[in-house]
């Protein structure tokens, strides 16, 4: 890997001289509110209503799910970020170099940043954060897997940190951009996990002030926030961000109640907007939409190849050939989601999309089941083999699957029944759903996983990911165990050559698709509806979470 030094690019578009680069850094393609109009107004409280499950811990190092990322984006910052075209750009780190063999990285750190408890941000803080994520007692999953190749961290001096790797990691910078490995005060990390979960301490534009469980989290303005400079070479002064005094982050599980609260002005932003609601809102001039599909993996159904009956590839293919996903998406999502035929999100340029693999062919499915020995039907029309019914258990997280998606699963259940599969849908809360996965009590599962870049394929489909992370969660839910695939994903992770990396990931995706381990559905959806009085709302291109650092309320 050649040694390379990165520095902050100059902002190409000036919105205001002070915030141009910050806005560019936070703006993924298609994931912005448009140009803010008028002069920003300081002050006010914005109320956000989330339909995701309330986190059990506000520290995204612990566990590492998407509801944590949504809120933690407001108070934590990462070493690097991404521009709207996917380029890695400085954030808390100003520049970095990699050794020729890819086993050593050095990061120069900003010298003007302090955590909100007064602790300096420095090399020792970076070392403490990586140690925290990697400590099994933290019970991390997303962050733990992302930083697995960091073997040692050395504070070269106060503002230079060296990462020593166990093996080259071409996805390291992408991983470091994510909020699940964001920087927290090392002094705060010394507290008990319970204390730190209740109020993590970061460098971001807001501070956790109060958490009223089962209701809301209140965030207040970080008066000492030092935003990334618009142009380090030009020596720009601090912008005075954020504009808002506070954010009230409410948890409202019912989608109709969230939308009603938005319409009435009780809240200003909602997430998990339903397809029919999105279409309805198009005719309301007082409501806008922010569409920010997540990077990483497509939303998909994983077929558990680690146990019967999906340990037989013929049965996996028969199931995929039996169900009509396209019609379900068209009828249930009102044009707000497009069918995916790839393991990767459409946001990922290296995604391999092959629609012909997913055409419905009930005759071929029947032949495959006959060949696999499921050649008889019982009185209810289900396929049987050796007296056992062809039964599939499908736990569904009601916290993560919106009603339209749950209806899609019901349509898939009906299609599969015609082919002779009995699909048992088990609606579960998030905790029970995780429990079912941990007990290997599933044949089918839809499990969203967000990680920037194609290296998400290694996290999801390398056989090593069948082993649980310290949190107890394992990412390879399809339980793919293929030596050739493992080697391809390992090689892709180790190479920095763009062409070679793309070829390796294409080969890996073909193995995943050839093996009929997954049924792609659509991009992981991030539809936010917000009042037209909210200006400057952006989505971070790292994991497509909204940021309110530049947001303000117009009268």
**Widest sheet, order of strands:** 8-9-10-1-11-21-12
Multimer state: single chain
User: What composes the largest sheet?
Assistant: 7 strands, mixed
Overall SS class? alpha+beta
Overall pLDDT metric = 91
Poorly predicted ranges (pLDDT <50, ≥5 residues)?
Answer: 1-32, 230-237
Determine the number of helices (DSSP H or I, runs of at least 4 residues): 17
> What is the alpha-carbon Rg in Å?
24 Å
Helix percentage range: 25-40%
Q: Could you say which overall geometry the principal axes of the C-alpha atoms support?
A: globular
How many extended strands?
Answer: 25
Roughly what fraction of the amino acids lie in strands? 15-25%
Distance from N terminus to C terminus (CA atoms, Å) equals 53 Å
Overview of this protein structure:
There is one protein chain. The protein is an alpha+beta fold and 555 residues long. It is built from 17 helices and 25 strands. Strands 8-9-10-1-11-21-12 form a seven-stranded mixed beta sheet, covered by helices on one side. A hairpin with a 3-residue loop joins strand 8 and strand 9. The termini are far apart. The model is unreliable at 1-32 and 230-237 (pLDDT under 50).
Describe the structure concisely.
This protein is an alpha+beta fold and 555 residues long.
Tags for this model:
single chain; 555 residues; alpha+beta; seven-stranded mixed beta sheet; four-stranded antiparallel beta sheet; 17 helices; 25 strands; 27% helix; 20% strand; globular; disordered N terminus
